[in-house]
Every structure is written in C-alpha cells, then in structure tokens.
Amino acid sequence: MSTKPKTGQGTARPRLYVYSLGLVFRPRIRRILRASGWSVRIGIPRKQRDSVGVWGRKRTYRRGRMIADWRQVPMVTIEDGFVRSIRTGRQGEPSLSVIIDKSGVYFDTGKPSELHDFIVNAQNMRPLELERAKAGIQALRETHLTKYNANDLSPPVLPDEFVLVIDQTRGDASITLGGGDANTFASMLLMARTEHPDKTILIKTHPETNAGKRKGHFQKTDIDDNTILFDDACSPWHLFDRASAIYCVTSQMGLEAIFAGKKPIVFGRPFYAGWGLSDDRNPDQTQHEKRSAEQLFWAAYLRYTRWYDPYFDRASDFFKTAQVMIARRRAWIVARKPIVAYGMRLWKRGFLRRYLSAANSEIRFSSDASFAVNLARANQAQLHVWAGKEPANMAAEAARQNVSLIRVEDGFLRSGGLGAALVRPASLVFDDLGIYYDPKRESRLEHHINHSAKLNAQQCERARKIRQAYVKLGLSKYNLDGATLDINPTGRQKVILIPGQVEDDASILTGAGDVRTNKDLVWATRQIYPNDYLIYKPHPDVAAGLRKGVVEREVLNGLVNKVATDVDIASLLGQVDRVATITSLTGFEALLHGKTVICFGMPFYAGWGLTDDQISPPSRRIARPNLDQLVHASLIDYPMYWDPVTGAPCPIETVVERFENKQFGASGFGVRMLAKLQGVFASYAYLWR
C-alpha cells in the first residue's frame, strides 16, 4: 500500500524565503512546505524563481510584501487549511493541511486568490472530479469533520426550535478583509432576533474562545431569556441538521452549512458567498455565476488545500487526511476524560500512557478493583479495565456508582511479535458495551457488524483494499517470520488447518462450546474430515512455553498429518482449503483469504452467515454482512491504531504500510530485558501473568 512522494525529485526545489518566527520555528509548516515542493530559506531572494512566503495577513505580511516588491519576486501566502487538527493551533497542535496561494489569500475577498480562480473554473469539472467532490462532502457530513475536531460526536441537548448564530474571534483577519467588524456581529444578532422572534437564538462560540485563547464578539451580556451562549464541544453538523436558520459573518461554518444542504444567511463577504448558495446580506457582496456545493468543495478542498501525511512526511490528499483526523479524534474522545486503569500489567502502562495522551488527560493505574471504582467515581473518570483481568463484580459495582467502564484488549492487527513476549501493540480496542470475544453479551464490535449494511460504497471499497493488502502482504495478528510448510496431500484430500489456541484464554472460556481444548478440537475435526489432510499449528505462546494448551505428540501422531511449528501463518493459509477452529483469530484471517471456516465455538466473526457454525449463534446476530462489511467493522470501526514509529494515533493504512516495510517499532530496553527473563522462566509464567 506504500506510495512514494513525487515532489522535488529530479529538479531543484523553488526557494521560499520567510521572515516571520512562526514560519521559521514551526517544523510542521516547514515539513508541509517541503512536501509541497518548496525549500524554506532565511535570507534575501536572489533569483527570479525564488519567492517570499508570508503567513496569512499578520504584521509580518508587510515585511514580506516590501521584500518581494524590492527583489521583484512573487509572494506566496501560507495559511491553515479547512480541516486542520483536533485542537487549535494556539493550544499547540500542528496542522495537517495548509493553503499555499501564489495570488493572494482566500479570506481577502477584495483581491484575487487562487481559490477564487478555482471556483470560477469549477464549471469545467470532469465527471470523475464531480464524483470525488460528492464523496468528499459525504465524508465530511457522515464523519462530522470540521476545521477543529475536538468534538464529542454524541448529539447535544438542543432546544426544539432554534436559530444558529455563529461567533468568531475578535481580530480575525477574515472578518476585516471580508467586509465585517464588531458592528456586523451586533447587526447579525439583531436581525436573527427580529426575523425569528418565536425561536431560541443559539450563539455558537469559537473553539479558541472555548479554550480561553481568544475572545469572541458575544459575551454573557448578550444572553437573554431567548438567547443561549452555546460552548459545548459538539459536532457542528448536529447543529446544522437541527437549526431553522444559520447566520454567520465569514466563518468557515457557513461553508460547512452549505455542504449540509443549508442556505446560510451571510453578513460578510467570505469566499463562499455570491455563488447562489447563500442568502447574502452584505451590500458590497459581488454576485457571481452560480456554482454548486460540489464545485465549491472541489475548489476549496481538492484543488486549493495542501494535505500532509505526518507519519511518512509526505504530501497527501483530502480523503487520506480525513482518515487520519478520524483516527486522532477517536483517540481524543477516548482520552478526553480522566482515566483510572485496572488490570494493566506493569509493562503495558508505558504505552498506555503514551497512547492515551492525545487529550492531555490524566491516567492513574490501580491494582485494587474496589479502589479503582471508587477513585473513578471520585474523579469523574472513566474506568478502563484489561478485559481478561476484569473481576466478576466490577461491572455491577461500576454501574451502581455511575462509572463508565471501558474494556481494553489487543486489536486484530497487533504487532511484529507476541504479546506474551512483551511486544508493544499497534492496535487496541476500547469497548463500552462488552468485549469482542464474549458472545454472551453484546460488544461494540457486534453492534458495528449488525449495522454494517449502512456502509457506503467508499467505505466498502476501503475495506476491500485493506482485505487485499492483508492477503498480498501476508499480514496476521503478530506478523511473525516463519518457514513455509511442505505438505503432500493426495489428489482428492482437502487440506484442513487446525490452529491451536491458549486454552485458558478468555475467548475459550467465554466463547467455546463442548469443544474446549486443543486436543478436543483436533479430534472433532478428524471426525468431520476422516479422510482429509489435517495440519495442526500450535499457538505461538503455547509453543514458546508461555501459555497453557500443549497437545501431546503421540496424540497428534494418530490424528493429524502434519504439525506446523515456526511456520508463517499467512503462507500456510495460502496452502489450505479450510480452517477448523474454536475461536481463533486465524479463522477470521482465513475468511480474508477466501477460505471456508468451520467454528466449534462462537468467535466474533461467526454467526453472520460467513462461517460453518457447529453451535447456535446468539439471537442478537441478525445481520448478514458480506466479507467487506465484516472487515470494515472488525478492522476499521472497532480497533484504534497507533503508528509503531511515532506512537501517534493513525488509521489502519499507516500500520499496514509500516508492517509492509517491517517497521514494527521497538520496545524499551527494560521491556526487552524483561521479555528475555520471561523466556528463561517460562515455567513460572503465573508470576508475571
């Protein structure tokens, strides 16, 4: 799935001279500029192909303008893009997108800009570009993306009928250069009240105002019995859907309202006004030839904005950046409240602190179950428990004390090494309902699968690509190196793989039927396939002596044709016709390879019509997903991923590319030494488990 950056290859990069400390000392902006083909310099432009770079229209703009005029070189304006980050720049979060405009800047609408030219030329969009624009708007709406994305996706409590008035920060250049000032905001509020006297006025404050970084135009003095100053960190798309009318000056939320199918009432002169998609109240607004919402999106998001991949330091596009933002927002949502963690082994605490630091939340660890519940209640914290370590009464006690309990487990594309060998995971699941391996109660994964029929074509295509990458790259949960296996079935024999499991694993304890041991699994499989070629593969943890589940060699000799140890599981799946399992994840991986899977237990992927089930599934499993829908629920919707190299939250595609390049990440020295000692004292595993 890897792609190589193309910018700057074979030719010298044009030089961009900058004169503001922000552009000099903000490494993310310099990296984006480099990924976009520029070489950032300090000094005096010397050649005609040199340019001067300025950030927006801040004070340093004049300095840059003077030098550009003096040296007779072009001036380039850099500014944040339209989907920027989780938190704001003033909160210290770098951007994932910028605009690089050689003509002007989009919010200075009294002068030319490349964005205006793109909108004018949008009438010449090709059919494929129109489809991409439609898909982009759909992605914004369905995933609730906006400029700053530190938003809870739960629908907020709102008045039955309300008018949305959008505030902005004082001194914002888009206001003064877009035909507005403080009086414009006062006039807008007055007009909203006048035109909707029977409706609640909901003033949406700006994220930087909510963070205490900048003041807005509306204060508590503007509140009356019919006016609400709304500062909840909720998705603006919930507000768009419910608002009777939307008022703005130059806010980007006005543009997003257009994408939501609304016609905002606009009091300034933003770039999106004057195209027939807004109710323009500014007397100086020029009316242009009409454009569609898709044409605006194509111009602003697909042509004008430069997107950045922070994991591989290269240029990206809107759709890939959207996936990055969704992954980072998921991590922010999980960690936005304080966390009390129970049942986390010592070596796991380091990566959990790192992974859950996205929202600067506090995480405290406890080895006492009652104390953990009480501590979570006292601090209004979430209670995170490693799923296999949850005491029997913890869920009931947490519910009694009104504490949110989240079960944590390894994801399905985990690492380049065993968890029992203390290898840091690249994916985890955080389940607020149950846990995926326990079929006795609903899990968040089961919920996703039951609703997978709602996935759109783009989501199914993404899942298909992930499934194809799994097979092509030979990916598995642990991605262990191994040899290939020589097998010699006769012409009519089917080849059946029997993956062994850890017999005291939680998935066996909760999801097995009558067949509960590896010995029973081998025997039951031979009963169904008496004349076929059976391969038994011990679980790596069991083979390493770290976990329970050994089947005696003399038993195997009488039941199977081959025992596969230290064999690459992905390669082995390419050699077999079927997989027989209790609840092993190998069964899921076999489905990705197009194999028939027989289940003697009830793993998460069974009971949906895709497997040959030997026990009855829970009545809750009513969906009949296709394979790509199952993949989307299991590998995209359910787990969260962290880049093995940077440790930052990321989409699954980043982990796939890292694993393709054998970049699994390295554990710390102490953890590596502990893993070696663990191997030496494997017989005493109970001491560290």
From TrEMBL:
<protein>
    <recommendedName>
        <fullName>Capsular biosynthesis protein</fullName>
    </recommendedName>
</protein>
<dbReference type="GO" id="GO:0015774">
    <property type="term" value="P:polysaccharide transport"/>
</dbReference>
<dbReference type="InterPro" id="IPR007833">
    <property type="entry name" value="Capsule_polysaccharide_synth"/>
</dbReference>
<dbReference type="GO" id="GO:0000271">
    <property type="term" value="P:polysaccharide biosynthetic process"/>
</dbReference>
<dbReference type="Pfam" id="PF05159">
    <property type="entry name" value="Capsule_synth"/>
</dbReference>
